[in-house]
Amino acid sequence: MPEPVHAPPAVAAEALPQPPAAQDPPRKETKREAPPDGSRNSATLAPIPATFLDPSRLTEKPRPLSEPPLDLLHPILASPGVARLILYIDETGQVTKAEIDSATLPRAAAERAAAIFAGLRFSPGRLDGVAVKTRVRITVGAEERPRER
């Protein structure tokens, strides 16, 4: 009778020669320094994720579901100047952050305008029918224009 053929004995994986493990290059630590005047830019402290799309990329722009309360806006609008705000609207239409981009209004008035618009509800922006996070720029107030003679 012929002798049975046996499989070669199993060799433990640890016993086989292994290629050297690839090592990640050491990370450079970078430290953001505060500006020399001591001011802090909110963009460097808490960046907004890039998932908030510009309205120009949307098929349907967000729209406020109601008007801002005019009784609260009236004192702001009575002052000359403007506040340029950036509203970050999530996919449910909720304003998650209202940021003052620039302002010629007094700081307190610009902050009040941001608080008023932060409380508004919107229909969300949509991209091909899907609700998405959107970054919307608005201007509150009126620019002073030179009078024509």
Would you give an account of this structure?
This protein is of the alpha+beta class and 149 residues long. It is 17% helix and 25% strand. It has a domain at 64-142. The strands form 3 sheets. A 3-stranded antiparallel sheet has the order 3-2-7. It has a two-stranded antiparallel ribbon with strand order 1-4. Strands 5-6 form a two-stranded antiparallel ribbon. Helix 2 runs antiparallel to helix 3 (107-118). The longest helix has 12 residues, at 107-118. 16% of the residues are buried. The model is unreliable at 4-49 (pLDDT under 50).
What is the N-to-C order of secondary-structure elements (H for helix, E for strand)?
Answer: HEHEEHEEEE
Count of DSSP strands: 7
Give the CA-based shape. elongated
What's the total helix number?
Answer: 3
Helix share of residues?
10-25%
**Over the alpha carbons, how many angstroms does the gyration radius reach?**
29 Å
What's this, in brief?
The chain is an alpha+beta fold and 149 residues long. It has a domain at 64-142.
Descriptive key words:
149 residues, alpha+beta, three-stranded antiparallel β-sheet, two-stranded antiparallel sheet, 3 helices, 25% strand
Give the helix/strand layout:
Elements: H1 42-45, E1 63-64, H2 70-78, E2 81-89, E3 95-103, H3 107-118, E4 122-123, E5 125-127, E6 130-132, E7 134-142
Antiparallel strand pairs: 1-4, 2-3, 2-7, 5-6
Helix pairs in contact: 2-3
